[in-house]
Known about the structure:
The chain has helices at 34-47, 182-190, 193-196; strands at residues 9-12, 15-18, 54-62, 71-79, 84-93, 100-109, 132-133, 149-155, 164-170, 205-209, 211-216, 224-233, 238-247, 250-263. It is mostly beta strands. 39% of the residues are buried.
Amino acid sequence: MTDLPACLYEPDGDRWLPTRLTSGPWDPALQHAGPPAALLARAAEARSGLDGGQTVRLSYDILGPVPVAPLRVDARTLRPGRRVEQVEATLSAADGARGLLMRLTAWRMRAAAVEGVEAAADPPPPGPETGSEAAFAWWADEVAYHRALEWRCVAGAVDAPGPATVWTRLKVPLVAGEPATPLQRLLVMADAASGVSAVLDWTRFTFVNVDLGIHLARAPEGEWMAMDAVTRPGPAGAGLCTSVLSDARGRVGVSTQSLLIAPR
């Protein structure tokens, strides 16, 4: 078995160095969008002025392919506030040659119980211990994004077309020397929803998402995260993937992805 890198990103001054575990399925020189999504969320929360706040919406625009190459992350507050704030984080190549690659706008809110309001309690899917280990026969490279997580399918299958319910657990930290947070674990996984629920043949079509939207009712907890994902192609080269996101306590939110579908 090939040894895996010890993390997804290594800090290098004001640069971030991606490891091979960020490499995506379409081209080994390009990253899967999950790891950079988590890296941008880390930057947004670090920029936040709400101590102990919660991130409730993350809206990602994928403006270009993200290379497995040194990166730069910048963050700024767009709308400060004592109860609600909006933060932006951007990702670019460290050499500045490609312009912005990804952009995140995140809404954060104060976290405080409201008297008389009872939280919804939607149960999680059957636990990861009931699932089967996911296969990635179509993934050409042995060390890439899919090896950064443990995968357990409890409905459907990663290597078969159609909806799927999958649990994942991140094997390595997002950033070297820093434990991954539950939100980071969720985000490394969430962009894979359109892959695990693919309805098109990977060898005949590409279906690349141009965005990723995450809405959360509460902060995720623990190590295992689940997605119950469905992909629906449209009639004119677009598609939509939607997913229910859960942790071991139950449902935490939903995700969406807009897909560009094209023949290979």
